[in-house]
What we know:
By secondary structure, the protein is an alpha+beta fold. The chain has 7 helices and 12 strands. It has one domain (about 15-285): Alpha-Beta Complex (Spore Coat Polysaccharide Biosynthesis Protein SpsA, Chain A). The longest helix is centred in the middle third of the chain and has 16 residues, at about 115-130. The protein starts with 20 loop residues before the first helix and ends in a 7-residue tail after the last helix.
Amino acid sequence: xxxxxxxxxxxxxxxxxxxxxxxxxxxxxxxxxxxxxxxxxxxxxxxxxxxxxxxxxxxxxxxxxxxxxxxxxxxxxxxxxxxxxxxxxxxxxxxxxxxxxxxxxxxxxxxxxxxxxxxxxxxxxxxxxxxxxxxxxxxxxxxxxxxxxxxxxxxxxxxxxxxxxxxxxxxxxxxxxxxxxxxxxxxxxxxxxxxxxxxxxxxxxxxxxxxxxxxxxxxxxxxxxxxxxxxxxxxxxxxxxxxxxxxxxxxxxxxxxxxxxxxxxxxxxxxxxxxxxxxxxxxxxxxxxxxxx
Length: 293
């Protein structure tokens, strides 16, 4: 709902013809041969969402809608009386299970990832298909350098990626309240006082994943374990990066880290909007996008 932004970031016009960030994402995905967009939304906003966002994409691509509903839990679980908070990003992905039968990407609708992200994922899926049935499921995460993802207008939370010698993901550490420093480095406060300093080259996850259909079965199993512990909670959330980390730790999957050198940008704060529009303007002037999508 964009609490720090002060409204719905998804409907903020950023392109020269009033385009939304998600329109650029759909444009880039289509050019990388993704065939369908599945929006995961709340059922009560469907009509407004389709009018403001969905119909813009429906004119260009196959579009489907999935609904993340609080009561959509495997039996015998039920939400705690009075709970209103959604179950988190892992549950949101599960909401799309019936609509997805092929390799798929997961992105945030209000983040700009750049065209390279979708090309990298498509190439990864092609490579996985070429060795089908060999080894563990091989998923993917498109990473960015920390300095590419900071805001000039306040602190941000980021998932710092750890990788092994083969460039595969070994873990994601959620780091809170990271702020940009004038020299391009970054820092965040330590609980004990003082600062943890980053040089800015750290790889971070911005929730741009590539999965195979078998991921749904694994995710369902992890969600059942989560509910066994948290079904009675008012606030606990089933986070997608945590689920991915659990699969890694258990040895049930591998995740290739695909580094993108494209610009990432988003709008954590209202004051980030001018910088987002300026960044898109530069890409259009460079010829990366048409004046009007």
